[in-house]
Amino acid sequence: MKRQINKWTFQITITGLYIAGLLLVIILNPILTYANKTTHNDYTIFHNKQLDPALAIKLDQATDLLKTSEFYNSKLQLDICLNDGSEYPQIIKTIRGPAFAWGFYDKVVLQGVANYKDNYVELNGYKWNLTQLLAHEMTHCLQFYKLGFWKSKPVANIPNWKWEGYAEYVSRQNNDQKDLARNIARLIASDKNNWEVKFEDSTIVSREYFDYWTLVQYCMDIKKMNYKQILADTTSEQTVRQEMMAWFSGRE
Asked: Do 130 and 122 contact (CB within 8 A), yes or no?
């Protein structure tokens, strides 16, 4: 009986490793689940349906946002995986959970329904600005490329406010989003019973990410820290928030 159990255990282990290996191959090679791929500048776009020309414009706009990051690398080439009929976004959803999009390694995977003309991705009735979403997820790729596997999330124990807040900071460069005091006031005035904060263009950001964004914006715009300094700093999230609110309350 013991020999039989060991045999079953071995077979289950081999099967598990085979499935994990197959998933890894698919994740690293999106073309296995897409009908087409198109190159635009430093991006390889994987898609099933005909591409909307507006996507190229959004990618260029997202690139301009990325260039504001100290981690920007002009040699970094990224895969953009669209949600237009391929099983790839569903595979990523199964592994990582539902989201408007995911950015990891050298890949950005859209999971919501994209409207390229009106510049948003819709998920569960909510709209996220497409250009800013692309820039947010691309920033995670920059973080991974610069810091390496062992010093990036989820392996490294980096606080969420530093990881996600920086991606929001890079992506939120609209004229009506660059003023920290206005952002804090918007957050305070928004309905705390809602998980999202709305902008004038009817797009949203999660309240959690908005909060993280203001913390990073405070560190970078007011305290004049760069992102490497923020990562190295041991000041707690609570203390940074208290400092930020004291600054906000003490403005003349």
From this structure: no
Amino acid letter, residue 130: L
Q: What are the sequence ranges of the domains in the chain?
A: 34-147, 158-252
pLDDT in tens, 60-108: 999 999 999 999 999 999 999 999 999 999 999 999 999 999 999 999 9
Find, among 213, 212, 200, 166, the residue nearest to 66 by Cα: 166
Q: Measure the CA–CA gap between 102 and 125, rounded to whole angstroms.
A: 18
Distance CA 142, CA 69 (A): 9
Q: How far is CA 195 from CA 130, 205, 221, 235, 237, in A?
A: 19, 9, 26, 26, 20
* This prediction's pTM: 0.92
Residue 18 has pLDDT above 90, yes or no: no
Q: Which two tokens stand for residue 131?
A: 């250009």
Q: Give the type of residue at 170.
A: V
Domain at 34-147, CATH homologous superfamily? Collagenase ColT, N-terminal domain (3.40.30.160)
